[in-house]
Known about the structure:
The complex is a heterodimer. By secondary structure, chain A is an alpha+beta fold. Chain A has a domain at 17-61. Chain A contains one helix and two strands, in the order αββ. In chain A, strands 1-2 form a two-stranded antiparallel ribbon. In chain B, a hairpin with a 7-residue loop joins β11 and β12 (257-259). Chain B folds into two domains: 5-186, 2-Layer Sandwich (Alpha-Beta Plaits); 190-265, no CATH class. In chain B, α3 (128-137) packs across α5 (168-181) and α4 packs across α5. Helix content of chain B is 25%, strand content 23%. By secondary structure, chain B is an alpha+beta fold. At the A-B interface, β1 of A face loops of B.
Amino acid sequence: MTGLHVSLPCHLGLDAWAPAARQAADCNVFLPDVEEEQIADERVSCYNCQYRRWAADGICCLATGD
Amino acid sequence: MHAYAELRDYDMLSPKNLVGTPMNILVCLDDTDNLESRGTGELASLLAGALEAFGWGKSSFITRHQLLVHPDIPYTSHNSSMCFAARLESSCPPSRFIDYAGEFLERESASGSDPGLCVALPDLLPAPELVIDYGRSAKQRVLDKKSAYGLARNLGVHLSEHGGSGQGVVGALAGVGLRLGGNDGRLKGQLAIGVPGEIRSVDLLLEHPLVDMVRGLDGTQPDAAAHVELGEKIKTVLLGGQSVLLLERSDTPEVPWRTCSRRQLKDY
């Protein structure tokens, strides 16, 4: 949430489109983020999830800690 | 010494300077959400809608501006700010809108958030390039509240915090700068144009009220009569101060263009 100073390791890089779609499809906490924050063409993708957090080199998952 | 130090105490928002004058304003919100709440974009939509519902003026589209993601910057999940332009009627001085917007943020922002509000009058900004530079800087390096307040004060830009640490003032000022620069961000929302797979001409696309220009990703200008295949999520970006629908080339001679995907627009 706001005010987070986290530096979790990123589980997906900036362009891991296929793995992001596969992982999100298998994930039971996936929740689509608001439209303006979605960047993947696949509707279900870690890149479109409300629980992903962007870092300079990719995304980490705030729901699972990955 | 900053180049803008000599501008200190310029007060463009002083009511005595603004009575009876229609005003263009830029409004930016940042850091209003938490992991479970509505996004800042939705609050920007609500605020822009309220401005119109009260008869205070007319709002334009909302743009999303990506700022730096860095371990030293507190942000929820993506560190973006949301900005819209509006034209206030002469009956609504900017101070009235600002008062409402501040109360709105305090009422509507999510628990644990650090909301910031920036309102600028672009037609009266003494040195707009300084705000634009600030916005660009916020995409490249870590900035603090002190720098934001210093610049805002010197340029007569309204900047205020409405809860938590108030760290959102940095992104709010940066968002105004990036919107003012006219070459950053995607528009909030998707264009309601046809259905995926449908073919439209460029000139028909230009009839949409939120499309100012149609352009190829490579910078080329498609012919007005050229055919375009519509994709699933159609979105415009802010380029040259306009809402631009970007197209990519296709391999089909009869339909030489198609709209860009979300992935293709992710860096805007």
